[in-house]
Amino acid sequence: MHTPPIVDVIIPAYNEEKSIPRVIGDIPALVRNIVVANNNSTDCTGKVAEAAGAKVVFEPQKGYGKACLTAMDWIKKQEIQPDIVVFLDGDYSDYPEDLLDLIQPISEGESDMVIGSRALGEREDGSMTLPQVFGNWLATTMMKYMQGARFSDLGPFRAIVWSKLLDLNMVDENFGWTIEMQIKAHKAGLRYTEVPVNYRKRIGVSKVSGTMKGVIGAGYKIIYTIFKYW
């Protein structure tokens, strides 16, 4: 009989008190731990996440990657380590129930990492800004020609074998986190694939695409990371 994998979910969250309970509530029951990294929120993100059933860790230093690393540190301390870790945003733009599609190629032994591709799925009108769409296209095109890595998206919704993730030695503390993982996975020879995921307008204002400073900052860091690992 096939034993179901142990799956933990990491959600980096900054001021997501309105959306985080919905995200947690829609995560499939097979998940063992939902680890919310409260990234120095000024609202009640931590409290409402805990009330919804998540394990909450606090990370005072702002940064998407930093929050993810803090959540990973919590998982490392658990007596029984997970087989798979899934990364998911806390703004309810992703559909948490798609997690089952993400982990399937890993559960079946076909992949080490699965990216949820918004480019291959259905996107609600207005869910991604023009700079986001262009940035994803530019980054994935650069990765293809510079590293030979074939991706259609840098989507934050992703699943990876926990032991393989640890081997990647992730270090980026902000916007370069997702692309660092993809480039390192490709260079390490991990088996990776993409599955279509649907995407909707987030609850609240984006910290990246919602401001010009965020768009420029994220774009610069993504391109910098591509050249860093070239």
Automatic annotation (TrEMBL):
Keywords: Transferase. GO terms for molecular function: transferase activity. CDD domains: DPM_DPG-synthase_like. It comes from the Bacteria. Coiled coil: none annotated. Residues 9-137 form the Glycosyltransferase 2-like domain. SUPFAM superfamilies: Nucleotide-diphospho-sugar transferases. Pfam families: Glycos_transf_2. This is Glycosyltransferase involved in cell wall biosynthesis.
